[in-house]
Specification:
The protein is an alpha/beta fold. Helices cover 43% and strands 21% of the residues. It has 8 helices and 12 strands. The protein has a 5-stranded parallel sheet with strand order 2-1-3-4-5, sandwiched between helices. Helix 1 links the parallel strand 1 and strand 2.
């Protein structure tokens, strides 16, 4: 694999963590391991993963609660997650599959090859889904699943707020969006933004675009004084 896939493994059994981590690394994956689900959530607030393997029964926070909290924190309806469980299959189907958007589960004891095959199937589904969620406008590409964009082929990492604001602007080029309209977008995504710092987020967006391609004069996000902001698909 040229770009290694990162798998986050959450299980209170440290021997399982060690074994799974070694097995995945032998197959070319990168792994992050957590024996405490709360610590895993704190870590993923700042850095996500490509897939999650989650133990169903953990002290303090069970796997389903962890998964739902993780989805909410990352502002996603569903994530590529595989559950490890020793519970009865009928219970899983009734509770987990009905009450959540989990991708799949593996019953203990399990074969690593089966676990890997199911995870790869989940990842292939999400990769197909990701390709569908690409918005292109000229030299700009927006990647909804990754919460980033590419400008003239250069990748730009965005915060959730920056992505939400940029997405609102580029989906309706030349249309001026007032600060209140941009605030509504942020509120819809449960982002803590005020009218005063909309301007700051726009300023940081412009700076990131200029840094990504300094040889090109970036003037696509135009300010309409007293009104708001708009995306200009052509150089102003």
């Amino acid at each position: 694999m040229t770009n290694k896939i990162t798998v986050s493994i959450i299980d209170d059994n440290t021997s399982i963590l060690t074994t799974l981590s070694m097995q995945f690394q032998k197959k070319g994956y990168e792994t992050i391991t957590f024996s405490n689900p709360e610590k895993a959530l704190k870590f993923h607030e700042k850095k996500s993963a490509d897939a999650w393997i989650i133990d169903w029964r953990m002290p303090g926070m069970d796997g389903l609660e962890f998964y739902k909290t993780l989805c909410n924190m990352l502002n996603q309806d569903r994530l590529p997650a595989l559950f490890l469980t020793g519970l009865d299959n009928n219970f899983i189907e009734e509770k987990a599959l009905r009450e959540s958007t989990i991708s799949d589960f593996v019953l203990k004891p399990y074969s690593f090859n089966i676990l890997l095959a199911r995870l790869e199937k989940i990842l292939s589904f999400f990769q197909i889904k990701e390709k569908r969620k690409v918005y292109k406008l000229g030299n700009l590409q927006m990647f909804e699943e990754q919460i980033n964009c590419r400008w003239f082929g250069k990748e730009i990492e965005l915060t959730k707020t920056e992505y939400a604001l940029l997405d609102k602007l580029v989906k309706r080029p030349r249309v001026v969006n007032s600060r209140s309209q941009l605030l509504d977008v942020c509120y819809a995504h449960n982002l803590d933004v005020t009218d005063r710092n909309i301007d700051s987020h726009i300023k940081r967006l412009r700076k990131k675009f200029r840094k990504a391609k300094p040889e090109i004069s970036f003037n696509r996000i135009t300010t309409h004084y007293g009104t708001g902001y708009a995306w200009s698909p052509q150089s102003a």
